[in-house]
């Protein structure tokens, strides 16, 4: 539930936030968020492949 | 390794006279028959008792237990009563919501999961939504109900995507339809009566005892989503508050750290939003100029593309679902509401505000 909130809504909130506020703190948080989304996607693809077999 | 396991189905029911028959019929129609079906009628004030009783004559392995105290024990209490009445020959216990139904090979798939992995403590299903009949509604009410249905339909697809990504170590063996090895659930001491998310709590207890918690996409269960804002917000607040309470209870360990990490990221985002919204007039403190930083663009692009990819997990997808996701705005507005709910969940948990189910 929270993960959906931070990856879907949070992704956009973060992008808008960074557009207005390019500070190091925000950069760090949003890089982590980007990492969560990318790692989540890689895990999703792996999960799909494993469950197909 | 045994190739036949005895399965019992537990169904807690509180005022479910309209739904329980459909739920029970889906259990009766299974390709793999359970040896015992227990309905715990939890202080219902409607005719749940009568509906279930009328079915016990045709289905002798259906057992009805009434909580006649007049005081509901809620889901966890009702399930614990069911657990105490399980036949000693049972190997697997399946817990099912009374307002849901399951596909006819559901128990067969559950049994296959447990036979193929003797370290498996619990397995959960795909969570599908039952399409509501909105024909009786009119005007704004109909539009709102339709929009809430569509948003939840897409959202539940996202939940299944998350379960697929973590299929061999799911966060929650959800209450809609999960099955447990009797040995694992007995070792945990059963469901906790003081938790709003008793399913999350039980999942952690099972994992902490060394059992696996998995997702099997071949197990299908369907439930009714709330179609009013009040109902949806009440449900989501319960999930969020319940989630925070469970983490506080279990602390940081190898099964909870990733959930803790998500909360930390959430709070960090929240602080960023507050810094933008808060009136900071001191010179040079924060710059409120629009600048399209590459990370912002990458985040928006990657977030958008992955969210579109996750549409493949939405059941019976239609044009409206795709449009809602492509337009972003409806889901973004819901996210803002969820942000606010999550904050209130932290406050409620810290302040130990009385829990309501």
Order of helices and strands of chain A: HH
Helix content of chain A: over 70%
Distance between the termini of chain B: 41 Å
Note the beta-strand portion of chain A: under 5%
Output the structural class of chain A.
mainly alpha
Transmembrane segments (chain A): 25-44
Keywords (chain A): Membrane, Transmembrane, Transmembrane helix
Give a concise summary.
The complex is a heterodimer of chains A (53) and B (357). Chain A is mainly α and 53 residues long.
Structure notes:
The complex is a heterodimer of chains A (53) and B (357). Chain A is an all-alpha fold and 53 residues long. Chain A is built from 2 helices and no strands. The longest helix of chain A has 29 residues, at 24-52. The model of chain A has no long low-confidence stretch (mean pLDDT 73). Chain B is an alpha/beta fold. Chain B contains 12 helices and 8 strands. In chain B, strands 3-2-1-4-7-6-8-5 form an 8-stranded mixed β-sheet, with helices on both faces. The interface between A and B is large, with 44 and 56 residues.
Key phrases:
heterodimer, A: 53 residues, mainly alpha, 2 helices, elongated, B: 357 residues, alpha/beta, Spore Coat Polysaccharide Biosynthesis Protein SpsA, Chain A, 8-stranded mixed beta sheet, 49% helix, globular
Which helices and strands appear, and what pairs or packs with what?
The complex is a heterodimer of chains A (53) and B (357).
Chain A (H helix, E strand, L loop, with lengths): L1 H19 L3 H29 L1
Chain B lengths: L6 E7 L6 H9 L7 E7 L5 H9 L5 E6 L6 H11 L7 E5 L3 E3 L3 H11 L3 E10 L9 H27 L11 E5 H7 L9 H11 L3 E12 L5 H22 L6 H21 L16 H16 L9 H9 L1 H22 L7
Parallel strand pairs in B: 1-2, 1-4, 2-3, 6-8
Antiparallel strand pairs in B: 4-7, 5-8, 6-7
């Amino acid at each position: 539930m929270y993960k959906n909130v931070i990856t879907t809504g949070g992704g956009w909130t973060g992008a808008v936030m960074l557009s207005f506020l390019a500070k190091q703190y925000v950069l760090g948080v949003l890089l982590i968020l980007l990492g969560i989304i990318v790692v989540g996607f890689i895990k999703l693809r792996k999960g799909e492949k494993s469950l197909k077999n | 390794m045994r190739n036949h396991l005895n399965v019992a189905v537990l169904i807690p029911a509180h005022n479910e006279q309209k739904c329980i028959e459909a739920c029970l019929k889906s259990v009766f129609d299974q390709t793999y028959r359970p040896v015992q079906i227990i309905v715990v009628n939890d202080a219902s004030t409607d005719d749940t008792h009568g509906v279930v009783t009328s079915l016990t004559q045709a289905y002798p392995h259906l057992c009805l237990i009434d909580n006649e105290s007049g005081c509901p024990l809620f889901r966890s209490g009702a399930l614990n009563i069911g657990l105490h009445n399980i036949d000693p020959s049972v190997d697997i216990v399946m817990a099912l919501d009374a307002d849901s139904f399951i596909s006819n090979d559901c128990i067969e798939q559950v049994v296959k999961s447990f036979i193929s992995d003797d370290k498996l403590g619990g397995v959960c299903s795909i969570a599908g939504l039952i399409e509501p009949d909105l024909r009786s509604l009119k005007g704004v009410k109909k539009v709102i109900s339709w929009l809430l249905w569509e948003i939840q339909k897409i959202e539940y697809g996202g939940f299944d995507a998350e379960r697929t990504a973590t299929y061999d170590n799911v966060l929650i063996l959800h209450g809609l339809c999960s099955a447990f090895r009797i040995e694992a659930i007995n070792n945990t001491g059963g469901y906790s009566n003081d938790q709003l998310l008793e399913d999350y709590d039980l999942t952690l207890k099972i994992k902490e005892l060394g059992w696996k918690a998995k997702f099997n996409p071949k197990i299908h269960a369907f439930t009714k989503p709330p179609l009013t804002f009040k109902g949806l917000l009440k449900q989501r607040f319960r999930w969020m508050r319940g989630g925070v309470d469970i983490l506080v209870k279990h602390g940081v360990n190898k099964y909870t750290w990733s959930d803790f990490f998500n909360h930390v990221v959430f709070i960090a985002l929240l602080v960023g939003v507050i810094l933008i919204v808060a009136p900071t007039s001191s010179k040079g403190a924060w710059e409120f100029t629009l600048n399209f930083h590459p990370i912002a663009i990458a985040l928006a692009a990657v977030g958008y593309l992955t969210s579109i990819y996750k549409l493949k997990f939405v059941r019976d997808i239609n044009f409206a679902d795709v449009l809602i996701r492509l337009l972003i705005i409806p889901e973004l507005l819901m996210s803002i509401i969820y942000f606010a709910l999550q904050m209130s969940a932290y406050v409620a948990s810290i302040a130990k505000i009385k829990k309501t189910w």
